[in-house]
């Protein structure tokens, strides 16, 4: 069987790729998908992603025990418990908790993809574990990049290239690649020597975050600090093995 | 003044970039923008781009002297005079004629961008002339790639990278680049040694066209066979100097 690996560079193009038989890998390196991976690595039980701030506040008001996290334009939303930093989840208060999360780009793309059956969360933090799992699935793969407000982002494309490269090199399947996937692999091959330096020199979102979130950026670019694969299930994100 | 160079990789994202003060460079390397450049180089007076086959037929029925050209999915539309090959315009019958043109991707993106003031047509065929003109304009630049049915295309991205690279190296302005522009420049720097081989090995649209349109592909990848710059003006495309 020839498996397709497609990269969708913006949630706004996802209707062109929409396919109930593919596995969707949701990516928002800076920072939602990295934050979600970090949260599960640190013992969070469940994350409820919501598209809007209003929806998040409403959900919290009905469930006082939930932890309310989120950002808009990189900044913690006023009156929220926490922002969207992947580092905060090392706090023990998160263990076994349900988190409500809303972000500028990442949780919106979860909303857009939600009608699909198979949606997992990818980041550099869980890339090896995720790719090992994907290699053993007999499905096509769509890597959905959150981008920045609908536009192309270098960090999400780099991840797409890294993941595609790992899948192809495993040689378990024959793959058919779309133009966006091929582009991402070329970019990854160029940047892989030091992805931090590449993004520091080039990525606009790095520029937006570096002033207040330099520690977050460095954390999001770590490889394989987690073996866990978050999966979107009905209205929330859980761990793959628990679904 | 710092000038922005942005690359919009799909007409479906153009509303995110929409800006009446920028110059829009429309690109559909395989084949609409190359065909339009070739047509003007060979003496066509005016091209009326239309989004749908129906609209094209209606316009022809009212103007029997117009030449009706167009394709869908790479094939000449039934009952049209010609398809979308840039080579056909070497025929002398086109001199001083008005052409109606509809294509799968290219003319649709003209339709989408039409509300903007400044839209020019770019291809490898006129890249030096176009870049010399752009360097002397004090406006931001948006390179709008037609892509393939809304998706990312390697050939349009390569052109965007080539054009951006020329503009930056001219050093007449300081430029601010978005992530998609930076991506296109990295891709171009990788592929520039031989763009034909790069696209032959990688581009899905090359695969679609190579069986019946190999001569067109080779023609579309030629540099600087024209010094002319087509510009969208009201309902039609004319030559820049005539507008």
How would you describe this protein?
Two copies of one chain form a homodimer. Chain A has 243 residues and is an alpha/beta fold. The first copy, chain A, has one domain (2-236): Alpha-Beta Complex (putative 2-phosphosulfolactate phosphatase), CATH 3.90.1560.10. Helices cover 38% and strands 21% of the residues of chain A. Chain A contains eight helices and eleven strands. Chain A has helices spanning 32-41, 53-62, 106-113, 127-135, 154-170, 179-191, 195-202, 204-220, and strands at residues 2-8, 23-27, 46-49, 67-72, 75-76, 98-102, 118-122, 141-145, 174-177, 230-233, 236-239. Chain A has a seven-stranded mixed β-sheet with strand order 9-1-8-2-7-10-11, with helices on both faces. Chain A has a four-stranded mixed β-sheet with strand order 3-6-4-5. In chain A, a hairpin with a 2-residue loop joins β10 and β11 (236-239). Chain A starts with a strand and ends with a strand. The model of chain A has no long low-confidence stretch (mean pLDDT 92). Chains A and B meet through α6 of A and α6 of B.
Per the principal axes of the C-alpha atoms, what is the gross shape of chain A? globular
Q: First CA to last CA of chain A: what distance?
A: 27 Å
CATH topology of chain A: putative 2-phosphosulfolactate phosphatase
Output the strand order for the largest sheet of chain A. Answer: 9-1-8-2-7-10-11
CATH classification, class level of chain A: Alpha Beta
Please mark out the parts of chain A with pLDDT under 50 across 5 or more consecutive residues, or reply none. Answer: none
Mean pLDDT of chain A: 92
The H-and-E topology of chain A, N to C, reads as: EEHEHEEEHEHEHEHHHEE
Query: What gyration radius of chain A follows from the Cα positions, in whole Å?
Result: 17 Å
For the record, the CATH architecture of chain A stands as Alpha-Beta Complex
- What is the CATH superfamily of chain A? ComB-like
Instruction: Specify the oligomeric state.
Output: homodimer
Q: Which structural class fits the helix and strand makeup of chain A?
A: alpha/beta
Helix count, DSSP H or I runs of 4 or more residues of chain A: 8
Strand content of chain A: 15-25%
Major sheet size, sense and barrel closure of chain A? 7 strands, mixed
Helical percent range of chain A? 25-40%
Number of strands of chain A: 11
| Largest interchain contact | A-B, 26 and 26 residues
């Amino acid at each position: 069987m020839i498996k397709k690996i497609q990269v969708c560079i913006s949630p706004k193009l996802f209707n062109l790729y929409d396919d109930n038989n593919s596995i969707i890998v949701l990516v928002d390196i800076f920072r939602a998908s990295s934050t979600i991976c970090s949260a599960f690595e640190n013992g969070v039980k469940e994350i409820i992603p919501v598209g809007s701030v209003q929806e998040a506040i409403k959900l919290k008001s009905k469930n006082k025990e939930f932890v309310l996290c989120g950002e808009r334009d990189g900044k913690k939303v006023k009156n929220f418990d926490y922002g969207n930093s992947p580092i905060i989840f090392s706090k023990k208060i998160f263990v076994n908790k349900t988190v409500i999360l809303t972000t500028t780009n990442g949780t919106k793309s979860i909303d857009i993809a939600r009608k699909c059956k198979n949606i997992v969360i990818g980041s550099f933090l869980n890339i090896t574990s995720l790719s090992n799992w994907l290699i053993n699935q007999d499905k096509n793969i769509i890597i959905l990049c959150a981008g920045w407000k609908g536009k192309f982002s270098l960090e999400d494309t780099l991840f797409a290239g890294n993941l595609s490269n790992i899948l192809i090199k495993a040689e378990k399947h024959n793959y058919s690649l779309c133009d966006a996937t091929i582009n991402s692999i070329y970019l990854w091959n160029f940047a892989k020597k030091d992805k931090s330096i590449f993004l520091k020199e080039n990525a606009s979102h790095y520029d937006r975050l570096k002033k207040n979130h330099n520690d977050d950026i460095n954390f999001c670019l770590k490889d394989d600090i987690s073996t866990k694969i978050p999966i979107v299930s009905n209205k929330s994100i859980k761990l793959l093995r628990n679904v």
